[in-house]
Amino acid sequence: MIQIAIMGLGTVGTGVARVVAENARQIERKLGEPLQVKTVLVRHFKDGPYRQLMTDDFRKIEEDDSIRVVVETIGGVGAAYEYTKRALMAGKHVVTANKQLVAEKGCELLALAKKKNVNYLFEASVGGGIPVLHPLTQCMAANRIDEVYGILNGTTNYILTRMVRTGASFADALQEAQAKGYAEADPTADIEGIDAGRKTCILADLAFGHQVDPEKVPMEGISKLSLRDVKLAERAGYRIKLLGRAVRLPGGGRTAYVAPHLIPEDNPIAGVEDVFNAVVIRGNATGDVMFYGKGAGEMPTASACVADVMEALQASPRREEIGWSPDTDGFEDPAELQSRYYFRIEGSLGDAAGSFGQVEVLSENGETAFLTDRISGLEARQQARNLKTLACMRVLP
Amino acid sequence: MIQIAIMGLGTVGTGVARVVAENARQIERKLGEPLQVKTVLVRHFKDGPYRQLMTDDFRKIEEDDSIRVVVETIGGVGAAYEYTKRALMAGKHVVTANKQLVAEKGCELLALAKKKNVNYLFEASVGGGIPVLHPLTQCMAANRIDEVYGILNGTTNYILTRMVRTGASFADALQEAQAKGYAEADPTADIEGIDAGRKTCILADLAFGHQVDPEKVPMEGISKLSLRDVKLAERAGYRIKLLGRAVRLPGGGRTAYVAPHLIPEDNPIAGVEDVFNAVVIRGNATGDVMFYGKGAGEMPTASACVADVMEALQASPRREEIGWSPDTDGFEDPAELQSRYYFRIEGSLGDAAGSFGQVEVLSENGETAFLTDRISGLEARQQARNLKTLACMRVLP
Question: Which of A40, A233, A388, B63 is the most buried (most CB within 10 A)?
Fold first, then answer.
């Protein structure tokens, strides 16, 4: 019998307890012995199936030598950070779905885990139930990773899908997502690109092996996106999706950012709809590999946590290096990155041509929408300085 | 310095040597020391960059204690089987892309590896460079796997894509694939579903944990597929793809087979074109997760072998159990499996209705094409016995 603890009993924490119970047979078959949730850390005691496992005292976990793995689903950086450190210090493996903590403190916590000869695993922090980090760091370990990009937030993808399908405005689609439980009452972290941004940082950390400071990663969401751009893009053969991108630059540097992009409709990621997520990893040997599925939800995310629990126990004493250096050197502003740009301006084609030279016109109906040649973000900003820009987005190559 | 050997210097074997050389920096960074190909086993000496590493005597590898991992890319079951056994017996890890050997002898070779406390890894045997087996057995380990299906053969998918896009016949599309180097001079293993069938066996073995006898897995290819069915299906909103499927049956049994299917065009796998592969894994917690990319080719497949080499070395002494029992019990004929069926018959709608009751008519132009309700394969065969059947395929739900 292997005993674990869960910290935090929200959606994911409850899901972890459910997966451990419902898939007990599969788990025991792989582990060779049963897995049991012994202790659940909560702030406030609640009635329910886990009432007799609850404690509000972290020391009950920290000082219990029979608990070998702790699943942290508290969220945020405060208590989650402190308890994770203490659990690792106490020689316990820690598994988490907490993307904020991993993005901000993952490198430090991995170093601590290494020192204590235990595992700190966080597959569930990106892509929920979709295996992404493990394939990136292990299955594709013989590649130089040149780019990772993806639809990393299901809430915003649902909103965009509704805008395209029904012609709803952003505000109406957001309201619908909230009514369906796909968006929270305060949707800021989702719609402003912050959630996708944290996941992008983790992908960049692991793809390139250097710590990326989330503060330096520009995060733009979809709250300013207009239905007009969605329709113009669609007519020209593009879909608009919120992408997180981590890119190795030609000069050897690296960059990362989150922003809405125009995606050519023949790119498989253009067809990823509703709450689904997809991540594309470009290896120099494999080419593009895509991972697709439900990126969130109680059971998918929880099952990824439980798989990490199993791996933490099996990769004894600890899994190999995943190579994440605290050195942040080489991170460059994404404005360095070249791409085609979509612009919608208040003005004529003549105005557009005056600023950008030859462009591909998408619409000239009072305002002008067009695509530029490949230019850097700096050039885009510079050349558009005399235009009345209503919308500006990168085009995914 | 870690030294390895390559057995067989065909496409994949050459690729392994190239990946080890070209991505030396990435590999050394993860392993902590350089990786070097010391010996290459060939049948006939050839000039080229690896001339001085070549031997035609397997004992040069078997008896060399400095060689810790052997990459087997000989193919087939004869010499590959013997040398793999002897390498494992000699205490060396073995890594392979040889799907025939894994499908037929994988369970036995894994047991031998376990006994000798080394790894036998074969990620590259399914999906080439796309991570599939590792995610299935590890990242999704906390799931009960209910189904795995996929486009597992790039050659047939290329031929089907050309038939749809250009209206070419099967024979013409095959010729084109051969001219482009996507199909071999003898294309039997690809077009008759044998290659996809071996991969399906491996997926079924790992998904359900029981040995599947390849002899019992019906394998139907695309050589009898008519352009007429492709067009009728497309008009009705379906694409035809050659799928390998491994399914957990409602009664607790399991089945597996390869056959062309009609796939609804809103299923992401319907859009997988050209030489690309895709595998969908259905976990009871994650729901459907899809893995997509180039399923073959020198560098993708080789990079998966090299990642396995790295994992074999890092998961020391050996990776956890993947759970593959020699017990073949519970395998049932896929005729037990229910689905809707597509039929094209020489006859009228009246003939179709006389045999199947109410059907969904797709065409009534001299011959009749229609979709049945959900029935088992046995029922489909039974009810069609008085019809002149020109084509019959399952519809993917």
Answer: A233
Nearest to B24 by CA among B296, B312, B306, B301: B306
Domain A2-129+298-314, CATH number (from 3.40.50.700, 3.30.70.1230, 3.40.50.720, 3.40.50.2300): 3.40.50.720
Q: Which residue of B has its CA nearest to A302?
A: B285
The amino acid at B284: N
Choose the catalytic residue: A92, A99, A116, A199. Answer: A199
Of B25, B138, B293, which has the smallest distance from its Cβ to A311's Cβ? B138
Residues A268-316 pLDDT 10s: 999 999 999 999 999 999 999 999 999 888 999 999 999 999 999 987 6
Closest residue by Cα to residue B70 from B119, B108, B136 = B119
Residues A318 and A114 sit within 8 Å (Cβ to Cβ): yes
Task: Compute the distance between CA of residue B53 and CA of residue B38 in angstroms, rounded to an integer.
Answer: 6
Does A321 score more than 70 pLDDT?
Answer: no
Residue B317 in this model has a pLDDT that exceeds 90: no
pTM summary value: 0.96
Cα A87 from Cα A74, distance rounded (Å): 14
Residue A274 identity: D
CB B5 within 8 A of CB B61: yes
A317 pLDDT tier (thresholds 50, 70, 90): low
Inter-chain touch A131–B135, beta carbons under 8 Å: yes
Task: Pick B139's closest partner by Cβ from A141, A307, A319.
Answer: A307
Residue-wise pLDDT for B15-48, tens only, equals 999 999 999 999 999 899 999 999 999 999 989 8
- Residue B199 bears catalytic tag: yes
Measured between alpha carbons, how far is A293 from B336 in angstroms, rounded to an integer? 29
**Sequence ranges of the domains in chain A:** 2-129+298-314, 133-294, 337-395
| Whole-number Å distance between alpha carbons of B310 and A215 | 34
Query: Does an H or E element contain B375, and which?
Result: strand B375-376
With contacts defined as CB-CB under 8 Å, which chain A residues touch B19? 142, 285
Q: Do B142 and A19 touch (CB under 8 A)?
A: yes
Neighbours of B147 (CB within 10 A): 17
Q: Which residues does chain B have within 8 Å of residue A140's beta carbon, measured at their own beta carbons?
A: 129, 131, 303, 307
> What is the CATH number assigned to the segment(s) A337-395?
3.30.70
What would be the CATH architecture of the domain defined by B133-294?
2-Layer Sandwich (3.30)
Identify whether A397 is preceded by a cis peptide bond (ω within 30 of 0): no
User: With contact defined as beta carbons under 8 Å apart, do B46 and B9 qualify?
Assistant: yes
Residue contact A289–B131, C-beta within 8 A: yes
Express as a percent the part of chain B with pLDDT over 70: 98
